[in-house]
Amino acid sequence: MGFKQRLHSRAFKRFLTSALAILAIVAGVGIHRATTEINELPSASDLEDVGVMTFRPYDIKSFAVTRNEHPRPNRTREIKTYEYHVYYRSLEAKPRRFSYHEAAGNTEALAQRLYEEGNKTWRVLTYDEAKIWYRCDPAMTAEDYIAERTYKNKLIIGVCSAYLLFFVVMLFVLHGRKLKPKPSGVDPLGEYEKQRQR
């Protein structure tokens, strides 16, 4: 069966529409999250540069994650796996002690390898009296960090918006009907002549 024949197959249309709809939902969530993050990002002038701090790994934790890995979007086959995270804490305690965690994959060996890499250094930027904080490369400034985060989120919004447009076009291609009048089998001029003869 060729691609054009598959494209007109009802089963193939349903499958493709379901797959595209799932990706459209993901794109919508991506736009929402990126837009929210842009709106919540403070201006660079509102950030306080605490300086470069050293973070030491202190724990490894695992979390159970359930995924649907069935090849067909409209069916479910739940598979339980584990994700490992490595936890870090700052050695310096001023203005307070900061901590964060990094995802280390789905095996304990990967998490252990990340743990054994040891300390990491980050520039710490605080906001709202250190209640909110951000970490970035030590060579970056607050202006660099905000500009980078804003650019990444705008890029996500652009890519997701382009996909949603593609999704609408594909819906029209798959399910759009050609707006051609169906032949009625009746000649309107002939009917008019018949009425006059009567």
Measured between the Cα atoms of the first and last residue, the distance is 56 Å
Query: What's the helical proportion of residues?
Result: 40-55%
The biggest sheet amounts to:
5 strands, antiparallel
Q: How many distinct beta strands?
A: 5
Per the principal axes of the C-alpha atoms, what is the gross shape? flat
Strand composition percent:
25-35%
Number of helices: 5
The value of Rg in angstroms is 29 Å
How are the strands of the biggest sheet laid out side by side? Answer: 3-2-1-4-5
Structural class: alpha+beta
Oligomeric nature of the chains: single chain
What is the count of distinct domains?
A: 1
Mean pLDDT: 84
Are there runs of 5+ residues with pLDDT below 50, and where?
A: none
Element-level helix/strand string: HHEEEHEEHH
